[in-house]
Amino acid sequence: MTARLFLVRHGETEWSRAGKHTSTTDLPLTADGERSALALKEVLARETFEHVLTSPRVRARRTAELAGFPDAEVEPDLAEWAYGDYEGVTTPEIRETVPGWTIWTHPTPNGETSDQVAARLDRVVAAARSRDGDTLVFAHGHSLRVLVARWLGLEVQEGRHFLLDTATLSRLGDDRGQSVVEEWNVPARP
């Protein structure tokens, strides 16, 4: 059986609720974020994971802990896209000076390029494909959207098609040699 890759976006933070770009700022989960992360525990307990990884950010590590994986291995490559000067800023605010801006089509001054993000997440994909058994990762909205694009063999910019809410579960796999999305953006249903 081909290994699968399970993805969990961290629970809600004040900035994710407000639509602010959050990468290196280490924010805690809100009370709602903690409740939704805890709801993932029963759902994830139904699966067996050979490898469990988490972004180094507090919001991802806390989500992993509440979901039943306090010993998840910290994997720096799962960190969120570094937004540089746009850290803590919303898309509408950025568009006041850069009309039409999106993370998928424009640069992030003093942040990461799409090629840099792709290189990090390509390593995660390669590691998951090379391991025996399923891998579970806890990470962030944009980094996980890039991860699914790279799993499917798509360019980073195609991640724009995969909307991802907080505290949701997604599953990537293989269908007769073709990389596929088996489930996407599923809220916890105990």
Q: Could you name the CATH homologous superfamily of the domain at 5-13 and 33-81 and 112-184?
A: Phosphoglycerate mutase-like
Largest sheet: 6 strands, mixed
Q: What is the CATH architecture annotation of the domain at 5-13 and 33-81 and 112-184?
A: 3-Layer(aba) Sandwich
Q: Outline the low-pLDDT stretches.
A: none
Helix run count: 6
Total strands = 6
- How much helicity do the residues have? 25-40%
Give the CA-based shape: globular
> What is the CATH C-level name of the domain at 5-13 and 33-81 and 112-184?
Alpha Beta
CATH fold-level assignment of the domain at 5-13 and 33-81 and 112-184? Rossmann fold
User: Between the first and last Cα atoms, what is the distance in angstroms?
Assistant: 26 Å
Structural class by helix and strand composition: alpha/beta
CA-atom Rg in angstroms: 16 Å
Strands side by side in the biggest sheet: 3-2-4-1-5-6
Mean pLDDT: 96
Quote the beta fraction: 15-25%
Would you list the SSEs in sequence order as H and E?
A: EHHEHEHHEHEE
Question: What do you see in this structure?
Answer:
With 190 residues, the chain is an alpha/beta fold. The protein has a domain at 5-13 and 33-81 and 112-184: Rossmann fold (3-Layer(aba) Sandwich). Helix content is 32%, strand content 18%. It has six helices and six strands. Strands 3-2-4-1-5-6 form a six-stranded mixed beta sheet. Strand 2, helix 3 and strand 3 form a beta-alpha-beta unit. It is globular. The mean pLDDT is 96.
